[in-house]
Structures are given as C-alpha cells and as structure tokens.
Amino acid sequence: MIQAEAKNVNFYYGDFHALKNISMTFEPSTVTALIGPSGCGKSTFLRLFNRMNELIGNTKLEGSVTVDGKDIYARDVQVDEIRKRIGMVFQKPNPFPKSIYENVAYGLRVNGTNKKSVLDEVVENSLKKAALWEEVKDNLRKSAMALSGGQQQRLCIARALAVEPHLLLMDEPASALDPISTSKVEDLIFELKQQYTIIIVTHNLQQAGRISDYTGFFYLGSLIEHDKTQKMFLNPADERTQSYITGRFG
Amino acid sequence: MKRFRRILEKFIEGILLSSSTITSLTVILIILFLFREGLGLFNRSPLEHNFIIAVSKQNPVQDLSSDQLKAIFNQDITNWSKVGGVKDSIILFTINDITNYFSEEELGASLENLPQKLNEFIEANPGALMHVSEKYLPKKFNGHTIHVKNISVGDFLFGKQWYPTSEPIPSFGIWPMIIGTFLVTFGALLIALPLGLATALFLAEVADIRLRNLVKPLVELLAGIPSVVYGFFGLIVIVPLIQGLFKLDVGETVLAGSIVLGIMALPTIVTIAEDALRTTPLSLKEASLALGATRWQTLRKVTIPYAKSGISAAVILGIGRAIGETMAVLMVTGNASNVPHSFLVPARTLPATIAAELGEAPYGGLHFKALFALGIVLFLFTIIINLTVAYIRNREKK
Amino acid sequence: MTRKQLSQRIAFSTFTLISLVVVAILFVILGFIIVRGASVISWEFITGKPEEGMTKGGILPAIVGTGCLIVGSMIFAFPVGVLSGIYMNEYLGQNRLRRFINFMTNNLAGVPSIVFGLFGMALFVNYLGFGDSIIAGSMTLGLLSLPVIIRTTEEALKSVDDSLRTGSLALGATKLQTIRRVVLPVAFPNIITGLILSIGRVSGETAPILFTVAAYFLPNLPQSMYDQVMALPYHLYVLATSGTNMEESRPMAYGTAFVLIVLVLLVNLLANLLRKTLSKRVKM
After folding, report:
1. Does B24 touch chain C (CB under 8 A)?
2. CA contacts within 13 A on the Cβ side of C206
3. How confident is the model over C29-58, as pLDDT tens digits?
4. What fold does the segment set C56-283 form as a domain?
5. Under a CB-based contact definition with an 8 Å cutoff, are residues A199 and A25 in contact?
6. Which pairing describes strands A167-171 and A59-67: parallel, antiparallel, or unpaired?
7. Which of A182, B136, B222, C38 lies most in the core, judged by the most C-beta atoms within 10 Å?
8. Are residues C5 and A78, on separate chains, in Cβ contact within 8 Å?
9. Which of B252, B76, B95 is nearest to B167 (CA)?
10. By the CB < 8 Å criterion, does A54 face chain B?
11. Which chain A residues are within 8 Å of B287, Cβ to Cβ?
12. So what's the ipTM on this one?
C-alpha cells in the first residue's frame, strides 16, 4: 500500500529547474528522511505534498503528486481541503500569538468545528500525543509565545496533529532547538510513526539514522538514491551518497 | 596630511550633525512662534488697540467681561443693575454718536474740543458707557475707565461665536470650527477607512505581483495630486452633485468636505496599512494555511491580528492628514461659522479658517493673534496624533 | 464549494472591486482635469500673462513663480535633508539621540501645511523681515519637505548592504571615504527619486505660501529673491474661488489645473524612470 507518491516530478522557480524528474513513494506508518546539501531541493520536494510552493508566484510543476491515491494537483481539488489532511511542522517553531489552547484548536476552528466539548477533547489528546500535556495542562490559556523553543515546537506538532492528518511533513523540525529539546522531538517522532506517515527533511545525518525507516538523498535537484535507511548508511549504492554520508561535502 | 584629513572628517561630521538638528530646531521654533503670537490673545484686553471703555466717576462698576460688554452693545442689557451697578439705565456712547450730542462747530475743526466735550457728557450722564479712543480722553477726566476682562482659554475653546472683526468687542469662540473639523474628519474616515483598508488588503494579500505593481503606483499617484486640484474638482463636480442630489440651497457642505478629504486620506491609509500587513511573518501564514485554513481565514485570524497596531497607526495618521488639510476643505465646505448639526450644512474647519482670514487680519491685532491661537490648537492635535502613533508603535515592538 | 471557500470568494471579490473603485476615482479626477484642461492649453496660455481680470491670457508668471519656489526650496532642503539622512543612518546607532531626532522629524512631517504657513509668516516674513518674498516662501516650503527627503535618504542608505561598508572599512578606508565612495553611489538612485518626489509635493502646496510669498495678481516676473510671485496652486485657488468673474475665468482654472496635474505626473514619471535607469547603471 502506498500513502503518498510523486511521479516524474519536475519543478521550476521561474527559469530555475529545482526538481528534476523525481519519483518516490511513501508507505503508511513509516518515517522517510530526506537528506542532502543545502539547496538540493529536499525542502521544495517536501512542500509539494501540501502545495506550499504555490505561495511563491511564478512556479511550474510537471508530473503528478498523489496522496491516498488522489492527485492533489487535479483541477477540481480545493487546496485548503488538501492541506487539512496533511500536517506540516516547520523549521522554526511558529506558534500563533494566541493562547496554547487556541493554537491547537485553530485547525478545527477554521474547518468549522467550534463546539467546546469537541475542542477540549481534541486539544487534550493532541497535546498528549505531542508529549506536552503534562507541562502545559494548567496553563492552556497562557500565550504560546511564553513557552520555550522546544515546547513551542511540540505545540506546533500538536497543532498539526489536531486536524488528524494522514501524512505529516516535517521541515527540519529540530534544527532550531537545543540538544535536549531535539531528543524529545525525536522520541516524539518515533512514537508518532505508529499512526502517521512521516516525511522529514533533515540536515542532521545522525538524526536521519536514528529515526527514519527510509532515506532519500537529494543532490542538485535530483533524487540520487532512495532506500532503507540501514542500507543507505551502511552500504550506499551511489558514490555521491557515500561521499555525503561520510562528510566529504555538504 | 593624516592629521589634516582627520580634522576634515571631524569638520564634515560636524556639518552632518548640525544638518540633522534642523528638523528638531524647526519644531521648537514652530512651537515658539505659534505661542509667542497666539498666547497674546489671552493676555490683553479684547478691546481694539488704544480704545477704552469709560464710565462716570460715581459709577461703582469697575470691570466687565467681554460677554457683558457684548450684551450691552447689543442692547440685551440696558440697566447697570444687571452688571453689578446701581439701578440706572445704560446710555451707550461711541465716537460715532458724537454728532448726536454736539454740533461740528462745538467740537472744532480738528476735534480739538472733543476731550472737553467728553468730560461734559460724562458729567451730565451718570449712566453713560463710553467707547472711545484713548487719545481723546481729557487730561483731567471726570470718569474712570473700566477694566475689561481678558479672553479666557475656556471662552476661546468653547465659545460658540466667531466674529473676529465685530465692533467694539470681537468674539473668538472656536467651538464651531472644532466641531466642524471633527465632523468633516469623521465623515472622511467613514469613506476612507473601508475603501483604504480594503485596498490595502487587496494589495497585500489578494493581488498577484503584476496587478500589485500596476495598482500601487496609481494609489501613490493619488497622494501626489495637489490639494487645490482636489478642491477644484470638489467644487466643480462634487458640490453641484450634492446640491442636486439632496436638493439643497448650497452644495458646499460638510459632506462635500468629507468626500474630498476621504479621497485625499486614502493613499496614507492604504500605504501604511499595506506595509503593516506585510510585516506578518510568512511562517505564521504558512502554519495557518498548512492547517487547512483558506487565505481569507488566514488573513482574518492571523495576518490582521498580527498587523493590527500598524493598521491602527495607518488609521490615526489618516485622521491626522484629514484634520490638517486646508485648501481642499476651504474650497468645498462653505465656511459658515455655525456649529454644524448635520452633514448637509456648511461648516468651517480650523485650518480653513486660518487660510481664509489671516490675509485680512491686521498684523499684530487680536484677530491675527486669534488665528495663531487656532494654529496652536491645530498643532496640539497633530502632536497628540504623533504621540499616539509613537505609543502604538513602541508597544508593538515589545 | 464549501462555506469557507465561498466566504473567501466573497471577501476577495469585494476587496478587488473596492480597489477598482479607488483606481477609478483617480482616473475620474485625472480624466476630468485633463479633458477639460487640454483644450485651453496653447502656446499663448503657457507664455502669456493673465489679462482682462484673469479671464484671458496665460499663466506664465505663475509657472515662473512655482519654478522659483521649487528651485529655492530645494537649494535649501536637498543638502540639509540628505546630510541629516546620512548622519542619522551612518553615524548614529539606535541610540537616544537618533530616536529623539526621529521623533522630531515625524512630528515635523505631521505638522499641517497651514501651520507651516503661519510659522513661515511669523519667522521669515515678519521676524526676519524678508517680507512676502520668494526667499520666505522657499524656506517655508523647504522646511516642509525636509522630513520626506530625510526619510527617503535614510531608506536609501538602509537598503545598502552592510557588507559593502565593512568591505570598504576593512581595506583601510575611513568612514567618510566609505560613505562617499561606496555607500552614496549605491544609494544615489533612491535618494534622487526622493528628491524628485518632494519637488512634486512642493509644487502643489498652497497653504504654506499663502502668507509668505503668493501674489493674487502680479503680471511682472520676479527680479530678485525678495520679490513676491504668483504660483500655480494659489493661482488655481484664486481662479476657482475668488476671481472677479468666476464663470469667465473657468477655462483659465481648468488650464491651470491641467498644468499642475501634468507637472505632478511628469515628476512621478521622471522619478520612476530615473530610479530604473540609475539603479541599472549602479548594478553594472
């Protein structure tokens, strides 16, 4: 079974050919890490799955991207409906300047759920899943801006989980965090794998090795290699992967 | 050589420093000169220069306020008992009345006998109230002069009458202008706010880059049109339109001023509000969109709340622009100095009054000073507005 | 379509529509003045003097007067504004003095133009004894346009990449040399744009010149900077509101408004053009 798939994808920013003929599939309940040097296209590729690249004008996409067997770039698709089913966690924690509660409830509210009992339950569950509940349960009305960086990032994960996504996209979610917060977030990703399909972009190879089942190596807009993480790290098929993993460039 | 260069650099730095003090200096000088001229209204008698009010020696009345004097001259008060004197009717006497009492021969060819005749008159009429020039007073005067109370700040701000040239006592109440200014500004906001904010939202969030590059310069061009041209357009197009539409006797109304000012305040509001909307971090908008919010929901729930202090600054600066605008309003509001009670009557604003009257006010006279006092009021409004904006912006930084 | 998509469509269409209305207002005003004014424009109108109670003839004295005021105010305001912009951005950090000067400059920018008129009359005309004159009017207009010039200079300097400064300083250049040889050339296009836009503003201001320089009717051209002059915006005001024969002087008013509008449009166009060509040259 396949949760998400990109088929023969080419992507352009204006004249710049950012992604070159990439095909990749993602199985349910797995973590796939996308690695590669800066500017290799891994973040662009990730953002294809919830159509975030559209926010910048003058882009062009060829090929198809499907989630749950549906082409998310099809003409009749409403982009907000797509995004609702696909959660995203960003590089820097970006909580809204609202209360903790309202941050988590946001996704439900914008999708028409305003019933308090439902919201209460979802907020609690999401915060529990994000391993933040114990720390904030007495301060749900406090501003999210008052949390520490690590807490903010887990809040953003809880916020993404609240809308029950099928697929979770993470764009270097731990890059702005201290080591302790990072390990908490990594533990969390490991937990979440039971229920969600996760694609994570990371700069940190050890992190990719620790948490992912599969790894894809991007270089200059192309997918060089995509395989089980264990195999990629121990016995890569491509020379360039080998060079990157052993730290010879990047 | 090195030493010379260092001195030169210091010298140039000094020039730069002194240049940058000029704006501050100007603000201080503006305050100084406005107050120097304007405060003069409050520390001298409201009588015309060199003129005095005199009564007979027996008369116990020592001072009168300008309101009392006005009432006496308008014959609303005709008895001394009303103003703290004995029961006796008031006999008004001004220099124009002189020939009613004395023949030209009696006065002499060059009025050389006038002082003496004034003495005779005041002796014969214990109830007389004289308004004459100081220079005609006899050396040994049989009466005493009345101290006329100065105009108070309260009279000035809240007085409902503005008759700056009326004789013998002018009225300097600016309440009608304050109300006129606020009414015109309020109307302008009702027009400019929805139009301006919607355009700002369009430019910041709806338009693609090409459309934005087309529309934005046009809005900025609106700011470049001189205010007399707006006034002229208002006078030729909007005023007759209002007159016809509401079947009025005159089309020069508060409404006409509001429409013209509303258009003029648009660019300020659009530009500043759009800048404010753009300060919202992309990461917040992305987070919202990624949760399935539409762009409109994102705008409403994330972007606008984030930018709200910048948007309020835009609104307040728009108000400032409207309050201070002179020429366009002068040309279309009809300049009646009554307190306006609706949008369909003429009114006058603070700046328009200055522009319309300063040219005719004799230098250094009361009227002249009163117009500078109007300038003070206007200046204070703008200071309040700037302080508010600075406060909002500071709070935002924290 | 879901409810939230519908509400987005309604909201965004409203914004688009309103923006169109705003643009339409601009075109109505411009169109009205241009259509009515164009037929009045002739060689005689541009180069002649007002005649027959300002119902005939031309507006040369007003054009010359406005020209004098532009030149006069810019001679003063441009150097002062640019220098203080440089000082504020290059020499003052984010310290108290900078905040104070900023605050005062903002205050000056917010002062209504009629208050500038009062101030100019009190200081230049009466206190310094210049009388109603080009110099009094120019100084008043110059002070009025200072905040705009300072702001645009600061913005222009801010947009210069800091690495250029550190690069130059690292080569042993002094601060002043760095500013003169590296920073200013890069910022120049934007500074000049600001200058030109403030010319547009100066040429259209009426209230500040009412009591400092503007003459109701003065067919002779000025001989010195202590002379009064006619000026385009004041002339339009006079023609529109207090001419001796308003109906008959209407064409003159349209013509004057036309010239003012064309002036503003040209200034804007020039500013944009200059910014584009100059910044291209800097990039190469």
Report:
1. yes
2. 31
3. 999 999 999 999 989 898 888 887 777 788
4. MetI-like fold (1.10.3720)
5. no
6. unpaired
7. B222
8. yes
9. B95
10. no
11. 88, 90, 94-96, 156, 159
12. 0.93
